[in-house]
Amino acid sequence: MFKKLLEKLKSKSASKPTPASTPTKVSKPKPAKSSKKAYPNRFLKFYHENKGRVNKNRRSMYTEHRKAGLCVRCTKKSAPGIVFCSYHQQKQNKYNKIARS
Ligand SMILES: [Zn+2]
């Protein structure tokens, strides 16, 4: 079974079938950029101005909390088997439902 899959993958690169119906790309005109960037609030402004640092910090916090058995969104203890506390697990479930609907 696995061998068959490999063969399939190999043959795929040799003869690429063109997709039958690709919707024509509609290029939206980009809004004119003003020299001064406007952010809806100061939190977003801070985020965009410090993206690299903020994301690096978030990543390391995530791994540290996960290792320590803490919720990755706050400092509470996480539920067994997941990376969230019960509160943030519920919140995440809501987000997932919205994203998947
Ligand atoms: Zn939490």
3D structure, described in words:
The chain has 101 residues and is mainly alpha-helical. The protein has a domain at 39-101. The protein is built from four helices and no strands. The radius of gyration is 23 Å and the shape is extended. Zinc ion (ZN) binds next to helix 4.
Strand-helix topology:
Blueprint (H helix, E strand, L loop, with lengths): L1 H13 L27 H8 L1 H18 L17 H15 L1
Bound molecules: zinc ion.
How would you summarize what this structure contains?
Residues 1-39 are annotated as: Disordered. This protein is mostly helical and 101 residues long.
Instruction: Write the element-wise H/E pattern from the N-terminal end onward.
Output: HHHH
How many beta-strand runs? Answer: 0
N- to C-terminal separation?
34 Å
In this entry the ligands are: zinc ion
Q: Major sheet: size, sense and barrel closure?
A: none
Compute the gyration radius: what is it?
23 Å
Number of helices: 4
| Class derived from helix and strand content | mainly alpha
Q: Provide the β-strand percentage band.
A: under 5%
Backbone shape: extended
Average of the residue pLDDT scores: 84
Query: How much helicity do the residues have?
Result: 40-55%
Residue stretches low in confidence (pLDDT < 50, at least 5 long) are: none
Keywords:
binds zinc ion; 53% helix; 101 residues; extended; mainly alpha
